[in-house]
């Protein structure tokens, strides 16, 4: 039997496992909801109004145009931010987002966060709605700060604690290379990377952006924490873009900041990350 | 599927729709579970799909297409449920330090575990095509019609899903374990 057939047979056998009967309560809930739910009417709105006079058509078109323009101006009007937490003196972020003033998300006051657990002493102001990802259960350890804003997460990790995949599937994980940009450029998981210098918290480092285009044959568990090898950072989703920020520091205080976001929301998320990191200070 | 019941339900007959619900709900749940791999999410997806079906039924032009149509509604409900689930989950995982035994009779169990873990990493649209093809046995053309996508797209989604799962099951592949499962 060919490998394809064996795989298909195994896949079908696996899919046969699992429940096939829906609990009665679920059906009862649906039928109960239907009792109070009305159906949509199948109305076909006529596209043209043949009985209208030319004058009426012109007037109707004018009204529609005015309403459309009004709605457009309303939606595109400049937004006023609520709350403007200060930026720590001496911190700067190069590149896009530098000129944007920090803006807290509506209803989410910015708070100063100082980790007492993370291996590298640091603090930052949680602007823009960034918060510790407490739902994950792994939000703060000596090897990780896991922050979240909406659906986007960032991880801040000590470089000394990280390992990454070797060259092939069977090679062991190796320490995070000094030249992370070159490593990203060589990995089959990523498309072409863009790199630039960045300064955060008084430290100069490197920012790397790369699209994740997993080729299906490489290791995709790409960051693994070294001391116990018991944690891994599993963030790669095809069609998303990754941002790595490498900030070397004295001794073992260098950190890697990683963000992954869908390409459609990447720029907005990156700008927000800039605002967050503009408040980061090493203690 | 009883065409008369579909016609009656389309006309607003709740009893007729209740009969349809009893006919299709087990099948829909089985599909949803296999796409989402979570009982609670599958239940929610089926509920949403059935209520959406009731609301939108008057728009169904061909009663004979009811089964394919409700599958499409279900798959979209699964997409929505998956997004909600993803929002609540972290990408941080714990790694199984001890690994799983692959000797003797545990090999099949290990394979199932591997495919389960790998499947959870597939994009939801690839999962859907994989389940419709391998679980329901639908040909790609019918899957494409059901999901409202080009046949080439259905084919490529199945291809990538298969390639991903096969590579994940090869020796040496590294797969993260489920969130919350301690090493």
Indicate the low-confidence ranges of chain A by residue numbers.
44-51, 78-106
The tally of helices of chain A reads 5
* Percent strand of chain A: 25-35%
Distance between the termini of chain B: 48 Å
Most strands sheet of chain A: 8 strands, antiparallel
| Global Rg of chain A | 26 Å
Overall average pLDDT of chain A: 74
Question: How many strands of chain B?
Answer: 1
Helix and strand sequence of chain A:
HHHEEEEEEEEHEEEEEEHE
Rounded average pLDDT of chain B: 79
Stretches with pLDDT under 50, minimum 5 residues of chain B: 94-106, 174-183
End-to-end Cα distance of chain A, whole Å, is 63 Å
What share of the residues of chain B lie within helices? Answer: 55-70%
Largest sheet of chain B: none
Biggest interchain interface, per-side counts: A-B, 63 and 63 residues
Helix content bin of chain A: 25-40%
Q: Report Rg of chain B.
A: 19 Å
Q: Could you explain how this protein is built, in words?
A:
The complex is a heterodimer of chains A (283) and B (183). Helices cover 25% and strands 27% of the residues of chain A. By secondary structure, chain A is of the alpha+beta class. In chain A, strands 3, 4, 5, 6, 9, 10, 13 and 14 form an 8-stranded antiparallel β-sheet that branches. In chain A, strand 1 (111-114) and strand 2 form a beta hairpin. Chain B has 183 residues and is an all-alpha fold. In chain B, helix 2 (14-36) runs antiparallel to helix 3, helix 3 packs across helix 4 and helix 7 (140-147) packs across helix 8 (151-168). Strand 12 of chain A pairs antiparallel with strand 1 (92-94) of chain B.
Summarize the topology.
The complex is a heterodimer of chains A (283) and B (183).
Chain A: H1 3-16, H2 24-35, H3 54-76, E1 111-114, E2 122-126, E3 131-132, E4 140-141, E5 144-149, E6 152-158, E7 162-164, E8 174-175, H4 180-186, E9 190-200, E10 203-212, E11 223-225, E12 231-233, E13 240-247, E14 255-262, H5 263-277, E15 281-282
Antiparallel strand pairs in A: 1-2, 2-15, 3-5, 4-5, 5-6, 6-14, 7-8, 7-11, 9-10, 10-13, 11-12, 13-14
Chain B: H1 3-10, H2 14-36, H3 39-56, H4 66-87, E1 92-94, H5 106-120, H6 124-134, H7 140-147, H8 151-168
Helix pairs in contact in B: 1-2, 2-3, 2-4, 2-6, 3-4, 5-8, 6-8, 7-8
């Amino acid at each position: 039997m060919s490998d394809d057939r064996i795989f298909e047979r195994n896949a079908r056998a696996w899919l046969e496992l699992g429940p096939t009967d829906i609990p009665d309560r679920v059906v009862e809930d649906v039928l109960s909801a239907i009792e109070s739910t009305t159906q949509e009417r199948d109305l076909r709105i006529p596209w043209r109004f043949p009985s209208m006079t030319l004058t009426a058509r012109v007037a109707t078109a004018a009204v529609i145009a005015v309403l459309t323009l009004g709605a457009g101006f309303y939606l595109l009007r400049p937004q006023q931010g609520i709350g403007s937490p200060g930026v720590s003196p001496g911190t700067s972020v190069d590149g896009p987002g530098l000129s944007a003033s920090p803006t807290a998300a509506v209803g989410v006051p910015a708070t100063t966060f100082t980790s007492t657990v993370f291996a590298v002493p640091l603090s930052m102001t949680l602007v823009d709605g960034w918060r510790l990802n407490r739902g994950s259960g792994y939000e703060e350890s000596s090897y990780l700060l896991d922050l979240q804003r909406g659906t986007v997460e960032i991880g801040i990790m000590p470089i000394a604690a990280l390992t990454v995949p070797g060259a092939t599937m069977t090679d062991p994980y190796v320490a995070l290379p000094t030249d992370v940009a070159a490593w990203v450029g060589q990995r089959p998981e990523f498309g072409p990377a863009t790199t630039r210098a960045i300064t955060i918290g008084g430290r100069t480092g490197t920012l790397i952006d790369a699209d994740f285009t997993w080729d299906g044959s490489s290791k995709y568990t790409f960051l693994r924490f070294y001391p116990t090898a018991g944690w891994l950072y599993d963030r790669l989703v095809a069609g998303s873009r990754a941002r790595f920020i490498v900030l070397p520091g004295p001794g073992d205080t260098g950190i890697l900041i990683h963000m992954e976001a869908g390409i459609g929301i990447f720029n907005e998320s990156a700008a927000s990350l800039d605002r967050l990191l503009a408040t980061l200070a090493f203690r | 599927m009883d065409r008369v019941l579909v016609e009656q339900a389309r006309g607003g007959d709740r009893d007729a729709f209740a009969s349809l619900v009893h006919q299709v709900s087990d099948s829909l749940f089985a599909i949803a579970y296999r796409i989402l791999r979570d009982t609670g999410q599958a239940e929610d997806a089926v509920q949403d799909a059935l209520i959406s079906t009731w609301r939108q039924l008057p728009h169904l032009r061909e009663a004979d297409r009811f089964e394919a149509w409700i599958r499409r509604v279900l798959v979209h409900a699964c997409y929505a449920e998956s997004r909600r689930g993803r929002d609540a989950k972290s990408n941080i995982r714990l790694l199984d330090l001890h690994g799983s035994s692959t000797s003797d009779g545990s090999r099949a169990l290990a394979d199932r575990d591997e495919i389960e873990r790998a499947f959870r990493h597939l994009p939801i649209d690839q999962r859907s095509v994989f389940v419709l093809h391998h679980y329901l046995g639908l040909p790609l053309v019918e899957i494409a019609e059901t999901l409202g996508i080009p046949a080439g797209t259905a084919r490529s989604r199945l291809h990538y899903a298969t390639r991903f799962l096969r590579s994940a099951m090869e020796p040496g592949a590294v797969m993260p374990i489920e969130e919350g499962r301690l090493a």
